[in-house]
Structure formats: structure tokens, C-alpha cells
Design brief:
This protein is an all-alpha fold. It has 9 helices and no strands.
Length: about 190
């Protein structure tokens, strides 16, 4: 995307509140950050709100970003994830839905995953209950460990592990049901 000198120049412009640099930052990173927002919020309207709030927070805190310590994309991604999690918490959304073991139970991997495109899988992940979706995204997509997830969400490490396990089981069941209902079709 951008090399290190370009990033430093862009960050310097944003620190000086240069509208041209701010516009360039938004244009270069908004689609990537929107995808992050959509994974956590589950719908386009909420994702757009979180994206806007994320850019406000990014511009307010860009002076704290150090080009030598990590990627700008990674830093912005972390800010966006934190904004999404705070918004979810602010809305008092329950992190963990009660799902009976009957709804989760499944033992074999479905073959439908070989037939799905990435956007189809994203749609299936978005159907997970809020808490499961958050932990699945943080662990599987973002790569955080259970200790970090526990700190971010204010839960125990073991709770993160069990919720991830249940999320994976539920995803397997949903994918299996898709395979039975529509042997080979894209999700609408």
C-alpha cells in the first residue's frame, strides 16, 4: 500500500491536521477498516457509525502513533476494534447468548466450506450471537490470544476459550445445515 517514508509523511500531515493528508488516510484505509467494523457490528448501518467514530478517534490520537514501532494499518485496526467493542458495550448488548447444547452439537466438518467464497463465510459468521461473533473475530480473524481477549472484554480467559469453542461448533452446524438445505449455492 504505502512505504514507510510515505506513511511518515501521511502521519505528519494528519498530526498537523492537514485536510489533504486526512482525506488520503481515509481513502486508503476506509475499506479495510469498514470490513473490521462489519465483522464486529454485524450490520452495515452500525458498521458505518463505528467506522466514523474510529476515524475521529484515529485523528485525535494520531500524534501517539510511532512509525518505528508498528504498522499504521495495525494501529488503526486496533483503534477500530476498540471503538467497536466499546460501542457494543455501550449498547449493553449481551456478550454471551444462552444456546442449548442441542443447537450446537455436531461432530463432523462440513464439505460446504470448500464451495463458499470469503464473503459467504463472513455472512455466516455475522449470524452468530454477538458474544460468539466478537470472540471468534478477535481470536480467529485478528489473532488475539485468550488472555488478550479476556482483558479486552473484561472476561476470564477460560470463558473466552469456551465461547470460541461454542462459536466454532455453532458455525459447523450452520454450515452443515446449509449443505443439507442447498447442496451448492451462494448465500444471499
Amino acid at each position: 500500500m504505502l512505504n514507510n517514508p510515505e506513511i511518515k509523511l501521511l502521519v505528519t500531515g494528519c498530526v498537523k491536521q492537514d485536510p489533504t493528508a486526512q482525506k488520503e488516510l481515509v481513502e486508503k484505509f476506509s475499506s479495510m477498516l469498514y470490513t473490521v467494523c462489519l465483522r464486529y457490528m454485524g450490520n452495515s448501518h452500525s458498521a458505518k457509525d463505528v467506522l466514523q467514530d474510529s476515524f475521529i478517534r484515529i485523528f485525535k490520537g494520531i500524534h501517539t502513533y510511532d512509525c518505528d514501532r508498528g504498522s499504521l494499518q495495525g494501529w488503526m485496526r486496533r483503534v477500530t476494534i476498540n471503538v467497536a467493542l466499546k460501542q457494543i458495550n455501550k449498547n449493553k448488548t449481551r456478550y454471551f447468548s444462552e444456546i442449548s447444547e442441542n443447537e450446537i452439537g455436531m461432530e463432523k466438518q462440513p464439505a460446504i466450506t470448500d464451495q463458499l467464497a470469503a464473503e459467504d463465510l463472513l455472512k455466516v459468521v455475522q449470524t452468530l450471537p454477538e458474544g460468539y461473533r466478537q470472540i471468534f473475530n478477535l481470536s480467529v480473524v485478528e489473532g488475539y490470544n485468550h488472555r488478550e481477549i479476556g482483558e479486552m472484554l473484561g472476561i476470564e480467559e477460560v470463558t473466552s476459550r469456551s465461547q470460541l469453542s461454542r462459536a466454532k461448533q455453532l458455525l459447523r452446524k450452520k454450515l452443515q445445515n446449509m449443505q443439507i438445505d442447498t447442496p451448492w449455492a451462494r448465500i444471499s
